[in-house]
UniProtKB/TrEMBL annotation:
Family named by the database record: Belongs to the tRNA pseudouridine synthase TruA family.
Domain of life: Bacteria
Residues annotated as domain Pseudouridine synthase I TruA alpha/beta: 8-101, 145-254
Annotated active site: 52 (nucleophile)
Species classification: Bacteria, Bacillati, Bacillota, Bacilli, Bacillales
Name the UniProt record assigns to this protein: tRNA pseudouridine synthase A
Quaternary context: Homodimer.
Length: 261
């Protein structure tokens, strides 16, 4: 028996999220079908976490147990030949049988992209939220800093969250502004990418954070409101849930010890 760990990128536009759902059409479903087509094994893969419908991934990680002797170097190309064009497996390694891609994940980073130029980018419209009116980016950055640390993020969790513990740690959060797609001499504000790295995330947590920060950028909230929103532990105090298609699971980090090398 072998335990294989793989990295997969996907455009989530057409899918009902990563994790298998009763009505199907998930990234997990297509990966499992591709593995079955390749090896004849009906198995369940384990993802590092779920992503919602419409959310993308540049660094989703999954693992599975297999009895297949196929060499590692052949797995990615063989699976990609059996997958839709918007799902691409980019890496495969063999890991100890004890490895579990969700339980052993130490850090996850999400990226949220806002196109703050006057006009949308037709080539990136599936991965950016277009906001054509002015945003106070400095205020948004100030508000974001208040979210770094270990807190109860109930205010930033979906009301449908089934987690009993809403305490999480955000290790780092920052924004980058790319002006290369902006028109010279215009009032374009560029592409604002927000990166949030944490120990784990609650349902809709990053999207609610971004919806709240957009309100800060619009002047509807102050950066100094963020600590009070956190302390309230009340979803109604935060902003709206930002659109899904601008969110991407950027990376997942693992700390392998000698047992897992």
């Amino acid at each position: 028996m072998r335990n294989l760990c793989m990295k997969v990128n996907y455009d989530g536009t057409a899918y009902n999220g990563f994790q298998t759902q009763p009505d199907g059409n998930t990234v997990q479903d297509f990966l499992e079908e591709a593995i079955y087509s390749l090896t004849g094994e009906k198995l369940k893969i384990t993802g590092s976490g779920r992503t919602d419908a419409g959310v993308h991934a540049y660094g989703q990680v999954f693992n599975f147990l297999t009895e297949s002797p196929i060499p590692l170097r052949r797995w990615c190309l063989a699976l990609n030949a059996r997958l839709p064009q918007d799902i691409i497996v980019t890496d495969a390694i063999e890991v100890p049988l004890s490895f579990h891609s969700r339980r052993l994940a130490k850090k996850k980073t999400y990226r949220y992209s806002i196109n703050a130029n006057r006009f949308p980018d037709i080539f990136h419209r599936r991965t950016q939220f277009h906001h054509p009116t002015q945003l106070n980016v400095a205020a948004m950055e100030e508000g974001l800093k208040h979210l770094i640390g270990t807190y109860d993020y109930t205010s930033f969790a979906s009301r449908r969250s089934q987690k009993t513990d809403h305490v999480r740690t955000i290790f780092d959060a920052h924004m980058k502004v790319d002006m290369s797609y902006s028109r010279p001499g215009s009032d374009d504000q560029g592409i604002i990418d927000t990166y949030i790295t944490g120990s784990g995330f609650l349902q809709h947590m990053v999207r609610i954070i971004m919806g709240t920060l957009i309100e800060v950028g619009e002047g509807k909230k102050s950066p100094d409101d963020i600590p009070g929103i956190l302390a309230a532990k009340d979803r109604s105090k935060a902003g709206p849930t930002a659109v899904a298609h601008a969110l991407m699971l950027w990376s997942v980090e693992y700390h392998f010890n000698s047992e897992n090398d």
